[in-house]
Amino acid sequence: MSGDRTRRQLVAGLAAWCVAPMAVHAADVQLPAPASLAGALAAALARAQPLVVMASLQGCPFCKIAREHYLMPELAAGLPVVQIDFRDQRTVRDFDGTTRTHDALIKAWHVSVAPTVLFFGRNGREVAERLTGGDSDFYGAYLEARLQQARTAVRS
User: Fold this and answer.
1) Cβ(85)–Cβ(68) under 8 Å?
2) Confidence tier at 135 by pLDDT (50, 70, 90)
3) d(Cα 156, Cα 154) in Å, to the nearest integer?
4) Omega into 80 within 30° of 0, i.e. cis?
5) Taking the CB of residue 72, how many other CB atoms lie within 10 A of it?
6) pLDDT computed for residue 22 by the predictor
7) Over the range 13-42, which residues count as b (16 or more CB within 10 Å of their CB) and which as e?
8) Structure confidence by residue, pLDDT tens digits, 69-111
9) CB proximity list for 78: less than 8 A, separation 6 or greater
10) First and final CA of the chain: distance in angstroms?
């Protein structure tokens, strides 16, 4: 009997040891999810910045890279960046005050690729070309060019 108990404890301990790294890996860092896009945009414009919105998909490796290597540092530096998620049923108020789910908002914007980064200015209008996909050696340069275009549009 004690042999079976020892084996069960060993197996349980081994399973916990193997699963723990996966659990840590599964808890990816996320960008803030806005309650109101109009509110987030107003705060961005008050700082003469565009509102940057990342359309993300849970489990998407390119989304993780774009978010953690490019957008999180921009957020830390003060750029207003938020995240909206494909297939997510959380609600958000759109620029016009309409309450929609994240997924419905992504469909309304005709976003079909994850990640897609959008740049919004006054009246919830896009002020730079969307940055679609994440598989590029030049992602940082593409992002910087669009940010420059969006900042110029917002400040003019």
Assistant:
1) no
2) confident
3) 6
4) no
5) 15
6) 40
7) eeeeeeeeeeeeeeeeeebeebeebbebbe
8) 999 999 999 999 999 999 999 999 999 999 999 999 999 999 9
9) 47, 49
10) 79
Distances (CA, A) of 113 to 52, 54, 55, 98: 16, 11, 8, 24
Structure tokens at 61: 């490796």
Q: Round to whole Å and give the CA distance between 52 and 107.
A: 17
Write out the two tokens for 120. 């919004």
Task: Taking the CA atoms of 69, 101, 88 and 129 in sequence, report the sign of the dihedral they define.
Answer: negative
* Distance set, CA 18 to CA 5, 21, 25, 148 (Å): 20, 7, 12, 45
Torsion (CA) 26, 27, 32, 37 in degrees, nearest 10: 30
pLDDT at residue 10 is higher than 60 = no
Q: If DSSP codes are grouped into helix, strand and coil, which group holds residue 42?
A: helix
Q: Where are the beta strands (DSSP E) in 23-142?
A: 51-56, 81-85, 91-93, 99-101, 116-120, 131-132
Q: Report whether pLDDT(16) > 60.
A: no
Kindly report whether the global pTM for this prediction surpasses the value 0.85.
no
Q: Which amino acid would we find at residue 141?
A: A
User: Which structure tokens are listed for 129?
Assistant: 């070309």
